[in-house]
Amino acid sequence: MKRWLLDSPFGLALIGTIAAFYLRLVWFTGSWRWIGREQGEALLAQGRTPLLCFWHGRMLIMAPAWPLDRKIHMLISAHRDGRLIARAIAHFGISTVVGSTSRGGAAGLRAMTSRLQAGELVAITPDGPRGPRMRAQIGVASIAKLAAAPVLPVSFSTNRGVQLGSWDRMLLPLPFGRGVIIVGHPIAVPADADASRLEQARREIESALNDITDEADRVCGRVKLEPSATSTERRGALDRP
Q: 45, exposed or middle or buried, with CB in 10 Å at 0-12, 13-18, 19+?
């Protein structure tokens, strides 16, 4: 039944509406505190459009939380979960572009770059759509370079939430909680960045997102969530006696 619902336009619309209602319930019954919000406000005041980034597992509160005073787009994968997310966030005025930050997502990356260059806000999950968890893919740095847009890392946590068993360990916030949304310092990617500099920027983005996620969890009394091991780390573990 679940597969049938998610594969049908009616089912997607219904579940998307329910999900949007639930997120509004969580937002309006909770007590939410911003830390570092001035980072984004300063960029917008300077006429610079940031590329918003948050981990796939920390996306649920972003739609109702972010003030939509200008057009915003989110990069969403074409698989079933992505279509459901697109339906839910449409209720908050967020449009979607199909693609990913991994290999094969070139069309989506180009579309997001053009929207940033037009002064429209763009949001992506740099570890989506399938991970590894909390490991940024190179596409986020590539978009920032091409669009000359600063990357703005964002994360959230709450004292009332359930950590799901999904690949991203998604944090499902519950109503009537106390939460925090942290905006990190913007990260610039030079327009002339070569492959080595892009990789450095990718690591900076990954580190910044993990740092503010750890801080958000600490503030809310949650246990630190570790990123997935990289392929190099897994090989090293196998090689150790």
A: exposed
Q: Which amino acid, 96?
A: T
Q: Could you tell me which of 63, 79, 3 has the C-alpha nearest to residue 27?
A: 63
| pLDDT one-digit tens code per residue, 46-96 | 999 999 999 999 999 999 998 767 778 998 877 777 888 888 999 998 988
SS (H, E, C) the chain: CHHHHHHCHHHHHHHHHHHHHHHHHHHHHCEEEEECHHHHHHHHHCCCCCEEECCHHHCCCHHHHCCCCCCEEEEECCCHHHHHHHHHHHCCCCEEEECCCCCCCHHHHHHHHHHHHCCCEEEECCCCCCCCCCCCCCHHHHHHHHHCCCEEEEEEEECCEEECCCCCCCEEECCCCEEEEEECCCECCCCCCCHHHHHHHHHHHHHHHHHHHHHHHHHCCCCCCCCCCCHHHHHHHHHCC
Position 8, amino acid? S
Distances (CA, A) of 103 to 127, 144, 162, 172: 12, 16, 31, 28
Q: What is the pLDDT of residues 151-182, one digit of tens each?
A: 999 999 999 999 999 999 999 999 999 999 99
d(CA 130, CA 14): 24
Q: How many CB atoms lie within 10 A of CB 222?
A: 17
